[in-house]
Amino acid sequence: MIALFWVLCALVSFVIAAVAVGSVTGVQAQRPMRAVYVVEDAVDYVADHLPPDVAAQISYDDVRAVIEAHIAYMSRRGLASPRTFDTVADDLVVVDEDEPLAWVLGEVEDRDLSDEQVVIVLRAEGEFQRSIGAVGSALGDDPVGDE
Fold first, then answer.
1. pLDDT higher than threshold 80 for residue 62
2. What angle do CA 140, 141, 143 make, to 5 degrees?
3. What are the angstrom distances between the C-alpha of 75 and each of 20, 71, 80, 81, 100?
4. Which domain of life is it from (predicted)?
């Protein structure tokens, strides 16, 4: 009788564990893959992918300043978080194409960078974001799906 009790306890414990693992796995499967954005990796990637004439004119510190300004902008808009995916806005955030550029240009105006150099750095950073899966392809003209 005691052996039956222990077998029943083991079976119940297994079922509880299986349900717990299954529910957590199901929740994790519904979430998008998390892209980890490491600033130093972004700086290295961008510096390696700059055109030679631009790379000869700007420093790693300039690249880092542009990237950090862009991250600050995205964080301010709820598009990025230094913590976890859960702290990023779930709602669709529509941003004018020129708004991030204007923000970054304002943040790095004390550096000796031309607008063209900043644009080139931001384009290379966009390539880095796509390469790590942080962003997907651009949306069409109708981002919310209404026709």
1. yes
2. 70
3. 34, 6, 5, 6, 11
4. Bacteria
Place of tokens 């240009």: 105
Q: Find, among 66, 42, 84, the residue nearest to 120 by Cα.
A: 66
What is the C-alpha to C-alpha distance for residues 35 and 48, in angstroms, rounded to an integer? 20
Q: In this structure, are residues 69 and 122 in contact, taking their beta carbons and an 8 Å threshold?
A: no
Domain count along the chain:
2
pLDDT, mean of residues 43-49: 96
State the pTM of this model: 0.66
8 domain-assigned: yes
- Does residue 124 lie in a domain region? yes
Structural domain includes residue 137 = no
| Residue span of the structural domain in which 20 resides | 1-31
Per-residue pLDDT at 58 exceeds 80: yes
Q: Tokens 């607008």 correspond to what residue?
A: 115
Is there a domain that residue 143 lies in?
no
Please say whether the beta carbons of 144 and 92 come within 8 A. yes
Burial of 58: CB neighbours in 10 Å, binned 0-12, 13-18, 19+: buried
- 20 and 82 part of one domain: no
Pair 63, 46: CB distance under 8 Å: yes
